[in-house]
TrEMBL record:
This is Cytidylate kinase. Residues 6-214 form the Cytidylate kinase domain. The keyword Electron transport does not apply. Its EC number is 2.7.4.25. It comes from the Bacteria. It is found in: Cytoplasm. CDD domains: CMPK (cd02020). Pfam families: Cytidylate_kin. ATP binds at residues 10-18. The keyword Nucleotide-binding applies. Its main location: cytoplasm. Belongs to the cytidylate kinase family. Type 1 subfamily. One of its GO terms (molecular function) is kinase activity. The lineage of its organism: Bacteria, Bacillati, Actinomycetota, Actinomycetes, Propionibacteriales.
Length: 218
């Protein structure tokens, strides 16, 4: 279905990316990782030496980097001024700085415009924190994905090649705390969202659930 938009929001490490990419690949839809856009701005700010805890300094330059997202679910990319930073945006430094940056209204409004441009006519699975609530409230399917912190930390640490589970969990929970507590577009379950708890589900089971919701909506 050409115009279908599937919004997948949820906590850090709940499996949004693997799930969203899997759903998009199965249904032949595009895929947009909005978290990667916030990570890209954050990476650029760190490189420019901007103090990421100084909201006014961040806001003053928020429209400078040119951010572009590739929407192939099998090979998503994120570029800043034409350079692919898909790997760099996953660093510990970006993990630690991205939530304060994402709380700055000027950063959000800049990316909101880009996100709406990409979503455009639809046919896309979009993952983030505020997609169903703010970016695209009219999405045909809205999912709120969660999982227990222990499960999220264990999965994420394994993905990162055996990173420390306790430190990973602390980093995920700290991001959740800031993302849920901010004034502008906080992480929340959108009106009309279906809550999927992935703690005891396999990736394929979660994808099946969402594909099922999409076929009901189409
Ligand atoms: O999804 P991911 O963990 O890559 O997102 C990184 C960060 O980007 C989040 O912790 C949050 O601060 C921010 N974000 C956001 N709104 C979105 C997507 C991500 O504020 N729609």
């Amino acid at each position: 279905p050409g115009s279908l938009v599937i919004a997948v929001d949820g906590t850090s490490g709940s499996g949004k990316s693997s799930t969203s990419r899997g759903v998009a690949a199965r249904l032949g839809l595009r895929y947009l990782d909005t978290g990667a856009m916030f990570r890209a701005i954050t990476w650029w700010l760190l490189r420019e030496g901007v103090d990421v805890h100084d909201a006014a300094a961040v806001a003053a330059v928020a429209d400078r980097p040119r951010i572009a997202s590739g929407t192939d679910p099998l090979a998503p990319t994120i570029t800043v001024d034409g350079t692919d930073v898909s790997v760099e945006v996953r660093s510990d430094e970006v993990n630690a700085a991205v939530s304060p940056v994402s709380a700055v209204p000027a950063v959000r409004s800049r990316l909101l415009e880009l996100q709406r441009e990409v979503i455009g006519a639809g046919g896309i699975v979009v993952e983030g924190r505020d997609i169903g609530s703010v970016v695209w409230p009219q999405a045909e399917v809205k999912v709120y994905l969660s999982a227990d912190p222990d499960a999220r930390a264990a999965r994420r640490a394994a993905e990162e090649g055996g990173a420390d589970v306790a430190a990973t969990q602390q980093s995920l929970l700290e991001r959740d705390r800031i993302d849920s507590g901010r004034a502008t577009a906080p992480l929340t379950m959108a009106d009309g969202a279906v809550h999927v708890d992935s703690t005891h589900l396999t990736l394929d089971e979660v994808i099946d659930r969402i594909v099922g919701l999409a076929s009901q909506a189409a």
